[in-house]
Amino acid sequence: MRKGIAFIVSGPSGGGKTTLAKSMLHELDNLRFSVSCTTRKPREGEVDGKDYKFITNEEFENMVQQERFIEHAFVHGNYYGTPVEEFEDAKASGVDLLLDIDVQGASQIKQSYPEAIFCFVMPPTFEILKDRLSRRNGNGDIDIDQRLVRAKEEMAPSVLEQYDFIIINDQLDEALETIHSIIISTRCQSERVLEKIKENL
Ligand code: ADP
Ligand code: 5GP
After folding, report:
1. Which CATH architecture has domain 6-35+95-200?
2. Can you tell me which atom of ligand 1 is nearest the CA of 12?
3. In this predicted model, what pLDDT tens digit does every residue of 145-169 receive, in sequence order?
4. Which residue's CA is minimally distant from atom 2 of ligand 2?
5. Fewer CB atoms inside 10 A, N or C side of the chain?
6. 16, 120 contact by CB (below 8 A)
7. pLDDT at residue 147, rounded to an integer
């Protein structure tokens, strides 16, 4: 059976990761979202177990102790981590996995799973990023200035060069087409297709 491919999607908060990921999950078969654990409080409309597993600091610390994360990081004042089983289950069952994780987590995964595909989603300008963050922040639950400072660090060339693909999310339909093409082309890489052909012959 083919091994599932892990698509890592990183980028500054407000850059469009969730928007692109939701659309890909709707459009493409055999693609699953990796549900992370976080200590942050749910935003309006977020569903426990679907968007995130919302857990306490204590539960998070226990999972770290028990080595139940393939990566974890402290982002914008909260802990986030990818449970081992999310990753291993998808890989073993041949399902591709979409992981929305920050640059620290992506760099940890690059050490342990260098074969993953690393995609960076960024806005065309800081002004546009600020505008998108402000529009999304209807209930004022985030510190936009803090996220903009962090965005500058995340978009440094030394960080970006770790990624296989950079998607500039200006016009949404073009960005969707780009990420769609990345997933489809990766699935067609000869070594992945050859595995299947050999099995069938
Ligand atoms: P992230 O998951 O990276 O934090 P989101 O997907 O939540 O970002 O996008 C942030 C906000 O910007 C949302 O309100 C979303 O609807 C909007 N948005 C995303 N992409 C675009 C785009 N290409 N043009 C205009 N608005 C966008
Ligand atoms: P948000 O709170 O806006 O949903 O996410 C904040 C940041 O946390 C984003 O950069 C997102 O990519 C990142 N994030 C979400 N889940 C994980 C995870 O499991 N691990 C890491 N390292 N970052 C995550």
Report:
1. 3-Layer(aba) Sandwich (3.40)
2. 3
3. 888 999 999 999 999 999 999 999 9
4. 40
5. C
6. no
7. 87
